[in-house]
Amino acid sequence: MSEPNTMVFMTTAHKKVTIRDVARYAEVSYGTVSRYLNGNDHVSKDAAERIANAIETLQYVPNNAARSLAQQRTQTVCLILQVESAATIMQASVAEAMAAANQALGDAGYQMVTVIANSDEAVHRIAKLIKSDYADGYLLFSLSEDDSLALACKETKRPVVRSEASNRGDLPYPAVDFTNAEGQRDITRFLLNKGRSRLAYVCGPGFSTSAINRLNGFREAMGKFYDDSRVYYADDWEIGSGEMAAVTFQPILDQIDGIVCANDSIAIGVINQLDRFGYRVPDDIAVTGFDDSPLAQMANPKLTTVRQDSYLHGETVAKLLLNIMRGEPVERHFVQLLPTTIVERQSA
Amino acid sequence: MSEPNTMVFMTTAHKKVTIRDVARYAEVSYGTVSRYLNGNDHVSKDAAERIANAIETLQYVPNNAARSLAQQRTQTVCLILQVESAATIMQASVAEAMAAANQALGDAGYQMVTVIANSDEAVHRIAKLIKSDYADGYLLFSLSEDDSLALACKETKRPVVRSEASNRGDLPYPAVDFTNAEGQRDITRFLLNKGRSRLAYVCGPGFSTSAINRLNGFREAMGKFYDDSRVYYADDWEIGSGEMAAVTFQPILDQIDGIVCANDSIAIGVINQLDRFGYRVPDDIAVTGFDDSPLAQMANPKLTTVRQDSYLHGETVAKLLLNIMRGEPVERHFVQLLPTTIVERQSA
DNA sequence: CTGTTAGCGCATTCAG
DNA sequence: CTGAATGCGCTAACAG
């Protein structure tokens, strides 16, 4: 009744409301509405108000596909999670990095969407997605040996940033990584300084650059005392590998007073198995982890480990991508390194 | 040289290749190419081959936005993960369900994309996304007290399936859930049958339907012996809550021979704290969990718990959504219940 | 079986 | 400051 605009608008709910409906209701042309929506040009205050009102009462929301098509960009960033099994998805470090990236990208006006590549079929489907201009940029979290998605990324013109430095020169994406070598070197020295000199090492899976770098850090700290026969090479990052490592070391366990592990899960496996063998941690043998995952505090004894800030990791990856999307020049092989710190608890 | 088609095609790499380029190269009209791509109508074998060849040599991939716009569907399903903190993202059950859903949806030709709602701003952004016809269907994994996204889903015409039954009648989405009550009832009876009759209970957060259902199961098994003063109501599902529960129960710990917990994390917290108090598990007090998460096997003693098959959960949720998207009629309040089983280990 | 045409909903020129 | 026109890349309906 008191409404100045008494046009009858059945909220049909069947026919979707488009920008034209808004324009008609606001009594402007739909070009003006578009301008209003994108905040670019100037729209008269009067028109703006009517448009705002129309949008509100009509419950108008622009169609995503149409906007993407016309604009040639989607305002989304796609986070690709390439994993070998479900277990990997839930690594605390990954979850935290994802949360951080989601926040940073959201703040910049991008919607982060995550796709999971956990099968050959999924890899193939996602490779296609990448080529179809699905997103304005990509974050590649590959926790797998398979480089197929990294290769697929080469076929898009959109920027890509990796969550881990690669040792492959033919995959030239900027990356963010931790000072893996330095971290492992430092905690090894920490053990050495405590008088533990007969150390063994459990290395992560060979396809992982982090695993290699961490081993290198251990080697550097050990110097001429480095003994490859006291290194166990695991196939994955899981607890089971730690247990197997301890079993393998059993014959020489009496000659050892410390085991440096490639990550927390492995360290927990080692501790569990040492316990079964009757060795006390850290009294008989000290054990260290890497990551400072939530597991580290749940372990018994609590893990002394190398901490890496996963939240910072995700945030940094996201910001690097945003910079590139803004056009900032970044070297194709640029790797930003994040610091690690030692967290002393009970296991060493 | 031997190529029959000697047209010169600079792979300019600057100008993106469209369906028209393919048509020109294959010497057909682009309508035919479209038909070929969508496999619907009949295309002559001859033309099909030339098109296939053109697509291959031109490296053509259809543009996503354009296809979505013309077709009014995106061939994607959006999994919305509403969480309060990063820690929740990585719950093993969620990760496994996601992996399963990804597989099932992928097999059906849909790309699953996950968005994370971990802040008010993200919730708002995603609510808008939902209204913009971003996906053909939605999977709502809400591990939070906040119902705002469930409400936002009411404004889309696309089907929505929830991963957990809701107790709110105004959020009428089909859901898939576990037999929470039965599971907790059965493991309680399992304890009773073992001669443990003086039981306490640690309940999950009140906003969760699962938490309520599990408590009801416990209550049913206890019958007239149910004593609300022996129920601790936790604020979340974490280890810390288990520890606090044990502290709260301390005065009556000597009168208790078993504690049934709402989930595995809480059970571990209870066990840890009982250990600090000098009680032995299960000798003095038996403890049970719920979920059979990976933690259950890492705990010491290993957890006796109620197992729920998270992979099946994700798969079922996805298939239910697929059925609805195919037009199969499903009651708005339909809830599909998945079975739970008791896993006996050491803690009870 | 195939070419032609008209939109899908919106951004973005270009005149006014 | 605003309206009208053109096209983003593709599907689908229609003739042939």
TrEMBL record, chains A, B:
It comes from the Bacteria. Residues 15-61 form the HTH cro/C1-type domain. The keyword Translocase does not apply. One of its GO terms (molecular function) is DNA-binding transcription factor activity. Signal peptide: none annotated. Keywords: DNA-binding, Transcription, Transcription regulation. The keyword Mitochondrion does not apply. Residues 17-71 form the HTH lacI-type domain. It holds the Pfam family Peripla_BP_3. SUPFAM superfamilies: lambda repressor-like DNA-binding domains (SSF47413), Periplasmic binding protein-like I (SSF53822). This is Transcriptional regulator. It comes from Bifidobacterium ramosum.
